[in-house]
């Protein structure tokens, strides 16, 4: 009997036909509760939308309001196999170095002279290409300077489609990461790249050729204004050709950027402004 009484109490709690209450509340009570929460959540949604709207009014579509970045841009090499910084191949085995040539072809395709002439300007070298806004009037989209593939000469892939890999004189390409507003160099001195054997690789000796001459990043490619403001921007490149690397031996190489106002390394990132990689050219004995 006790169990039947408890069962009846539960049924009456769920639906009481005498008072017409559902879960202890009448229809009007449930209606008021639902109306309260409806108004409450509409208010919260409106407050969130208003907050987002006010915040978005402070942002610039073409330039970040705040930039938390290192004072020294990172460096990247091409070609790059997978995620490793190693270039290892056998001169006699075409399949081991052809993938590097193909990767460079793909990377350099946007730098073809015909494409650069259509999209970008022929700028005055050795000076910054500044395109300032006029008060509230935005000077967008901003123009960019041509970086023609032919400027890489022997490492352009135009005169040697194998980029020197088939003869043991490979080319690698270096670029700086994009940093909005950066003005590298000082007093008209353009930043430039130098490469050499790492300090512990004292037995590694080789000669290098740089393209463009002296491995410079010309000032006319700076400042960079951002992907939206400068849609056709072509990052300047430096190519390094290794002329007499010792074969059948690991050669550990470090390249770094040199500029009057770009520090090398920092407490936050000791590799800032430099890149290290291994080069090994194998030949049959």
UniProtKB/TrEMBL annotation:
Coiled coil: none annotated. It comes from Periophthalmus magnuspinnatus. GO terms for cellular component: sodium:potassium-exchanging ATPase complex. It comes from the Eukaryota. One of its GO terms (molecular function) is ATPase activator activity. It is found in: Cell membrane; Membrane. The sodium/potassium-transporting ATPase is composed of a catalytic alpha subunit, an auxiliary non-catalytic beta subunit and an additional regulatory subunit. The keyword Iron does not apply. InterPro entries: Na/K_ATPase_sub_beta (IPR000402), Na/K_ATPase_sub_beta_sf (IPR038702). Belongs to the X(+)/potassium ATPases subunit beta family. The chain crosses the membrane at residues 30-56. Keywords: Cell membrane, Disulfide bond, Glycoprotein, Ion transport, Membrane, Potassium, Potassium transport, Signal-anchor, Sodium, Sodium transport, Sodium/potassium transport, Transmembrane, Transmembrane helix, Transport. It is a single-pass type II membrane protein. This is Sodium/potassium-transporting ATPase subunit beta. This is the non-catalytic component of the active enzyme, which catalyzes the hydrolysis of ATP coupled with the exchange of Na(+) and K(+) ions across the plasma membrane. The beta subunit regulates, through assembly of alpha/beta heterodimers, the number of sodium pumps transported to the plasma membrane. Its main location: membrane. GO terms for biological process: intracellular potassium ion homeostasis; intracellular sodium ion homeostasis; potassium ion import across plasma membrane; sodium ion export across plasma membrane.
